[in-house]
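Deliverable D4.2, example record:
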Amino acid sequence: MSYGGVSRTTVLVAAAVVVILILLAAYFLYTRPGPTPTTTPSPVTTPPVTTPPATTPPVTPPTTPPTQVTPPPGPQAIVIETSKAFVVVGLKGSYVPPFDPKGKKIIVVAYEPDPQATKPVEKSVAFTDINPGFCRIEYLDALIMAARRSGDPAVREQLYEAIHKVSSEELPIIWLGQNKIVLNYWSWLKGRYYHPTLGERYDLLYKDARAPTVRIGIKDYVNDPKTLSIITFGWPDTFDPAANYESFGWLILHNIGSTLVTFWKDDLSTLKPELAVAWARNADSTEYYFVIRGGVVAYDPWNKKTYEITAVDVLFTIWRIARLQLDPSWMITEFVNVNESTVLTESEFNELLAKGGIYADYAGFSGEVRSLSQLLSVFKYVGATAGVVKLKLNFPYAPFLSILADPFTTVIPMKYLFDNVEGLKGKYEQALNDFRTAKTPGVWAKYIGTGSNEPTHLFLHKYPISTGPYYIEEYLEKSHITLRYNPYYWNTTLWVQLYGEPKPRLERVIFIINDDATARVEILKRGVADYGAIPLARLADIKGYKYPGTDWEIIVEEPGLSPAITFIVPNCMREPFNNKLVRQALAYAIPYDEIINTVFVGRIVRLYGVIPAGFPGHNDDIVVKYTFDLAKARELLRKAGVDLSKYSIKLWYNRGNVEREKTLTLLQATWGQLGLKITVEPLDWPILLDKTEHGEFDVWMVGWLPDYIDPDNYAGPLAYGGTKFKVLDLAVVKSVEEAQKILSR
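Output generated by the structure prediction step:
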């Protein structure tokens, strides 16, 4: 960073005077503490432990006393130097401290919070309204929202660099590492791949016909060449897509559901048609149109019935996610105005296209389309259609389409809920007619409520329906979940192409649930499972292990760096974690090398901020790089005036996760040396999620797999504090004076 220098309007004084003023200003700025989580930001983002460079040459004091400059009124904006810019962020009415732009662009974010629209921290929901640490830092929130709304990739990247830097200093979360990809499986299993957001589709995997047949020990199930058996731990939070926001649940939903668009296997960049056979947008990308595939049915395995899928069901699904206001809903409510979205017939859409101003971008084509037949030809689709969905966006958002590939948007037939949920039975036609008259899904609000006790949610929580390659055949909590291939799946042609028959090679999938890591290893080695959740420290025990009397062996594969990250979450609503200096002290009291090399056996790399490597905004040259330094931790605690021996806390992790248990046990020892009284406790996954998302915790450990591949999907869920803004101005200027004009009221 550079905070020295003088403005163009400053009266020139002797060179020696200028030098001494710069040194004094630098010392003040580099040693002044930063903002606390809930207050107006301080002028700098450099942590208070940083001191001026030791190599600064001495300066002979001037003979004339320096001119006294009165600081302008109002708060001081923060200046953050990134690789290609200076980011200036401040409240409307704040002033910009003098600095030398060094020829870089200046990006200005001016904001005014809206207290009435901002939900109180204590009433917020983690990952939905606020970051999991319940840490509200207004200027960081302004940076995140400005980056989200910017349409300029170069500006976005510099804003995310600033966010990455601030997240390493303010520590709304204590960052540990970025995970490496690790796959294990028996060599008879073929086709495994890795996709961070969707996981694998099991109908794309297959087993060698010579694979052994082994009794599983649950009912009469066997692991044979037509069965995929997975040994794991935990339990899905819910089977309702509109409420599920965790990796186990999304993995299952990806296999039992279909979304508008999808990614093929491990592709992270090219969206493919699924239930939408084609899509287009208006000129400013605030309206999207999706042509829905005809002939798709959803299978209800509980009543052995099928339901036709139309554009109305797609719109109902998207609207219901927003209406319920449950965990993943922010990805719809933030970007989509659901009540201004609607459904068109093919003829209505064709008339709209004929007027011009609608564009398609797909498979090398980018341009205006003037008819439905032309649009379908761009996507090379020939077949029936089932209407068109129009989604109205709140603002253009580059990653929007990839959100629609996420399993929480799995399409649910509206009639399925009206046929089975008490209070809705017999009202389907009425609800349909209400919509046809009003042309807005808002009319459904009298049928569908909000929250975790809403009747359709409670029903889907237990009885999921399938539009995907598999359906849930049966389940027993903490024991197993069984999937069966769906004979009503709309894309059995894919199976014919792959296998020569209208069904997948793997006709059944069984998740065996076992929270004992040692037992999971033995179950895998016996061939009861084809792969599983094996502790990293035990991979050496299974790699190359031979199935008795055969050449089959367990393969451990490490294809590269994953976008998954791991971190510690202190509760900023509780003392002492509401003090930034305490969070920094705790960051200096983490034995990183031991965690990386012993607990994760080298399969994790250090992460210093919210943006992982491989994403725009990741820049480790500008972050605070915490090391294990108990002396520095104690120094920060003295500066904060906090005695940790007054506090007793609990460190939580999800039961069965060995790496998190070992990490927190190490923290119990090192943080204990700072005075904290600590117990380490496991909780079942759904219970842990429920408690932590409502702020009922001290500290917990968790990981994050992105919902979609964009830096905003880290900065938003993991660092945003929930501040709403009356004013949020973003501008790129060339001078400090221009920056000041943007910030001035």
